[in-house]
Amino acid sequence: MALAADGGGGMTDDVAVLGAGMHPWGKWGRGFAVYGTAAARAALADAGLDRRDIGSIVGADTVRGGYPGYVAGATFAKALGWQGARVTSVYAACASGAQAIGTARAQILAGLSDVVLVIGADSAPKGFFRPAGGDRPDDPDWLRFRVLGATNPAYFGLYARRRMAMHGDTVDDFARVKVKNATAGALNPNARYRKRVTAEEVAASAVVADPLRLLDICATSDGGAALVLSSMAFARRHGATDPVRIRAVSTITPRYPNTVLDLPDIATDSAVAVEPTGETFRASIVRAAYDEAGTGPEDLSLAEVYDLSTALELQWYEDLGLCGEGEAAKLLRDGATTLGGRIPVNASGGLASFGEAVPAQAIAQVCELTWQLRGGAGDRQVAGARVGISANQGLFGHGSAVIAVR
Amino acid sequence: MSRTRTPVVAGWFTGEGDEFRLVGTRCSACRSVFFPREDVFCRNPGCEGGDLVAVSLSGRGRIWSYTDTRYRPPSPYVTNPELPWEPYALIAVELEAERIVVLGQAVPGVTVADLAVGMEVEVVPGVLSEDTETIWTTWHWRPTGVAV
After folding, report:
1. Residue B83: per-residue pLDDT
2. How close, in Å, is residue B123 to chain A by CA atoms?
3. How many structural domains is chain A composed of?
4. Where would a tag sit more exposed on chain B, N or C end, judged by fewer CB atoms within 10 A?
């Protein structure tokens, strides 16, 4: 499809990305506010704006930082210096960053604010994520640990085994995803893991949740990411004549009945009374974004997807419509999703190279899209990138997809 | 003093031996089934809502997928840190009549090497953990035809 250079032609729903910034991912042992504030300052510098130009701050919450984490917007606003901006804090598990971007966009499109600063950051514990403390038998997240000991990797293992049974994926295919993403991540200064990985190293790592090994599963990381978003009119006044624009933000829920077992549930919905649509939740997240942007998989230059596990990255290929159902491993083997291929996926290195910093991750995905669409991604640049999508899914039924264009 | 046998969650399963079943609820208006049980409102968005009545789920189903836990899960999963970690398998089972997939632990001794997607399994009573006063009971999935 043709993209109007001025954002016109009825496409009035764009917002401009004026700035993107990150604090490198790692295990730095500091508070989340430090990473978020550093990322915000980097995004402001990238935008060429002063903190006092910001009309609104939207923070993506973390559940691991105590009370300041639940009011992340205000925590970041204070750290950046109170200046009377509108403040919002949102939480949607892994989709928190997309909700923060969606909230900022809504404020801009509603005319409530010209320039919004979006920030997410996390300081992650070592080992498995675990539920909040106390006995809470009405909390599905508590129940799956108490009753089943079902960690996040256990769910990733279920999805991986299902793909092997249904589509013939192999553990070698999964390892190939890690090799691809590690190769890209080695080129990314913000990535936590910057070493190339071989298939042999994946195969030699310990099994965590059969059939997945340690190097198939993303780590948990510290990190921070931020974006400065504005109205197209503000961008023009600011001298940004051809900024990256956000054209769609999908933050939808599943439809009843949701027939794929999702974190943190012990069971799916029953399909006995209502016939499922045949479109999985993940596919519907992406379709909602395509519909909103008036675009489709054939228009994409690149995609950033949530590779919580290597096998999940393959699932996303199909959910994005990059190939038919069951064809993801072939798409990977053919090199289509590698840097230099037809549709590079996770040119940033993905979660395989970053580890997950929950509320920052979906924002970091859009930082990567921004740099790629500007042509500023250095050694990992996707040539001629014009349309990018990020896709992700948060616990408890949170869709997350962003389409950015230039 | 003998220890009490207490379900790890009240109201999720019932019966002994061959009569052991998972218990969910069914909406009397739209017939939707819920597990874990919904006791207040039907979650079918197209249903005006009816009484939610307890219902036993099918005792047998087929494996949707499976995995295992090679590392000790964190609290609130209860383990004895004094003992070496023994992995167990987790099985997601599709119940045909209810058109639902329910996750559970495999019976002890069954490993992923014994399992395949599509294999028939049955629900059986199991023990999750034991302490000085209580034996915490749960449900396990067991490939059909395998002795306890």
Report:
1. 94
2. 14
3. 2
4. N
